[in-house]
């Protein structure tokens, strides 16, 4: 059976995705041995926790806005369910650990950049599927914040590889 999504559920998933990212970086820190990589993982965890708090704030505002949220169509729900299942941090610690990922700041950044790109695709799909202008605005704000984070990570990788 396909889970029926609505805009509020999409926001809740956004909060959970950020929480999952923070937890992943926290677990990677337990394995990491390199001081520079440890500092980067701490920064990435803090970034994800910050986004989690901000997205939860947006969720609460939207939740208080109205009591009933219309569900997406079955087709839309199936599409979003499939995306949400593997949207961010696929492979978890195993994938991050490939190519000395736990101790290589560049490998960690490449992994984080891919996770940001994947999340942007998901948030874009949520924005595209909603019929509610206010929800569209909220998803646009999430996308704006995630693009800023992606740009910062990309710049960090450039500096790391220079």
Overall description:
The chain is mainly α and 162 residues long. It has six helices and no strands. The longest helix is centred in the first third of the chain and has 31 residues, at 35-65.
Please give the structural blueprint.
Elements: H1 7-31, H2 35-65, H3 74-86, H4 92-97, H5 105-129, H6 133-161
Helix pairs in contact: 1-2, 2-5, 2-6, 3-5, 5-6
Main features:
162 residues, mainly alpha, 6 helices, elongated
Shape: elongated
The topology string of helices and strands comes to HHHHHH
Strand proportion: under 5%
Helical run tally? 6
Arithmetic mean pLDDT: 81
Largest sheet: none
Query: What is the CA-CA span between the terminal residues?
Result: 49 Å
The total count of strands amounts to: 0
Radius of gyration computed on alpha carbons: 17 Å
State the low-pLDDT regions, or none: none
Helix- and strand-based class?
mainly alpha
Oligomer status: single chain
* Helix percentage: over 70%
Short characterization:
With 162 residues, the protein is mainly alpha-helical.
């Amino acid at each position: 059976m396909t889970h029926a999504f609505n805009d509020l559920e999409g926001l809740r998933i956004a909060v959970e995705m950020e929480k999952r990212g923070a937890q992943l970086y926290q677990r990677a820190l337990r394995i990491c041995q390199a001081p520079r990589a440890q500092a980067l993982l701490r920064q990435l965890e803090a970034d994800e926790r910050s986004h989690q708090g901000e997205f939860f704030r947006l969720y609460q505002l939207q939740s208080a806005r109205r009591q009933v949220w219309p569900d997406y169509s079955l087709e839309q729900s199936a599409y979003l369910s499939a995306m949400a299942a593997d949207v961010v941090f696929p492979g978890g610690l195993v994938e991050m650990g490939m190519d000395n990922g736990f101790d290589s700041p560049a490998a960690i950044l490449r992994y984080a950049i891919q996770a940001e790109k994947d999340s942007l695709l998901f948030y874009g799909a949520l924005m595209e599927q909603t019929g509610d202008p206010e929800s569209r605005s909220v998803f646009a704000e999430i996308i704006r914040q995630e693009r800023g984070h992606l740009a910062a990570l990309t710049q960090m990788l450039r500096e790391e590889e220079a």
